[in-house]
Amino acid sequence: MSASVTINGNYKSIIEKGLLILVGIENLDDKQDVEWLCNKILNLRIFDDEKGIMNKSVLDIEGNIMVVSQFTLHASTKKGNRPSYIKAAKHEVAIPLYHCFCEKLSQLLGKSVATGEFGADMKVQLINDGPVTIYMDTKNKE
User: Fold this and answer.
1) Helix (H), strand (E) at residue 108
2) Number of domains the chain contains
3) Mean pLDDT of each 10-residue bin along the chain, 142 residues long
4) What residue range is the signal peptide (predicted)?
């Protein structure tokens, strides 16, 4: 897997081997959600081992992580044809939690986490190996 983010035609971040995390922050999210999500992400066994079985974590493969904020993950399409983003957190909540999430991941990973730019018009490119795409919701931890 590899990913990159460009803003206004300039590369902001590039990673080769690891995870691209698209994170949407909801009104009710808090630092406990950040803690749970970071630990879950870092320990997910979704990379192939020597036998080709998904049995290794991003820590095991010494992979990289890129985090891109994406409020559209909270789109509600129940009524009409125009999505509602009412569950997406406002900037005063979302920005600090986004930074907290990136810092916690970096701390637990033991190296810098690549990022996009919160609120920017980004072009995100991804080569998804597998493809493996996993949706995680901190409101459904059980």
Assistant:
1) helix 91-109
2) 1
3) 95 96 95 97 96 97 97 91 93 95 98 94 94 91 76
4) none
Please identify every residue annotated as catalytic: 72
Whether 95 is in a domain gets the answer yes
Which has the closest alpha carbon to 41: 113, 130, 95, 127?
113
Whole-prediction pTM value? 0.93
Q: What are phi and psi of 37, to 5 degrees?
A: -65, -45
Domain encompassing residue 65: 2-127
Note the pLDDT tens digit of each residue in 78-114.
Answer: 999 999 999 999 999 999 999 999 999 999 999 999 9
CA-based nearest residue to 24, from 66, 68, 83: 68
As a whole number of angstroms, the distance between CA 30 and CA 123 comes to 28
**51: three-class secondary structure by DSSP:** coil
Q: Tell me, what CATH number does 11's domain have?
A: 3.50.80.10
Read off the amino acid at residue 120. Answer: A
Which residue in 17, 6, 19 sits closest to 105, CA to CA?
A: 19
- Please list the residues that pair with 47 across neighbouring strands: 56
Q: How far apart are CA 88 and CA 29, in angstroms?
A: 10
